[in-house]
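Researcher: I've been going back and forth with a colleague about how Ribosomal protein L1 might be arranged in three dimensions. Neither of us has a model we trust, so I'd like an independent prediction. The organism is Lodderomyces elongisporus, in case that matters for your notes. Sequence below.
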Amino acid sequence: MKMSLDFLLGDEAQLQTQKSLRALKQHLKKTISTESSPVYLTINVKTKLSSQKDYKPRVVPLTHKLDKITNKSITLITKDPSHIFRDALTIKDAPTEDSFNQIISLKKLKSFSHALKNLLKLYKENDIIVADHRIHKFLPDLLGSTFYLKKKKIPYMIQMARPPLNGAQQGLRRSKENKLKDDRCDPKYVYAQLRSIVGNTSYLPTLNAGDVISLKVGYTNWDIDKLVTNINDVINYLVDEKYRPVGGILNLEHLGNIHVRSDNSISLPVMVKADEVLKDGNGEGDDSDFDF
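Model: Here is an independent structure prediction for Ribosomal protein L1. You can compare it with whatever you and your colleague have in mind.
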């Protein structure tokens, strides 16, 4: 197995990562029949990543992409009225023409979200929920534990068009109340965000020092070198200042025990710090519930 000269956790950790990934792949070949299973990187973080819960998944760029839009069922939740965005996104030959399972307005979501069966239907019929950044803050109360409990299927936040530059008002309209309204919708820009969400990995920032974040970094049928590269991408995003203000908020000393695992395996070490062994346990992912 070739060594990378820039594995941020060091050569020893890289060797251990390769060893653990080989063991994980061999274990799953013996225990399950499916050809592929997700591989997760779990990181014990020694400092809090956010001062408050904002329910905004942070998308982490990966060299080797996890999936394609065409393989996912995606629902978009927009501000009202939704037809402005639906018409632009589903028009013939738009890049997003076939990207969405459905496009619904916040008003419509409010009208049916009180019934649990409706939320369960929305949950089961979609792999990913994305929402206009202007209404994203209302979703925890509407979607509730069906989507947010144990971080099950938390909606991603997207913008419908690039933010106006330097306060420019081009493309904006004024309402009857003389307030500026932004009804712009750029299918190419929306598609680029969808492709990033589907292809890359993500995590939710934790509030407490010592919490664990878990990120998908690939699949068990991938080459080990690809998995190692994506693991390095995650570490790089967390510690490199070029990703600020969203990423680049840690340094290597903030990272505790790091493991890899699948849905059906124990956690195997990437880097285990001697002073963390007793405190960190087996490195399983954070299963704490969100508060509402």
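Researcher: What would you highlight for our discussion?
Model: I'd start with this: The two ends are 47 Å apart (CA to CA). After that, consider the following. The chain has a mean pLDDT of 88.
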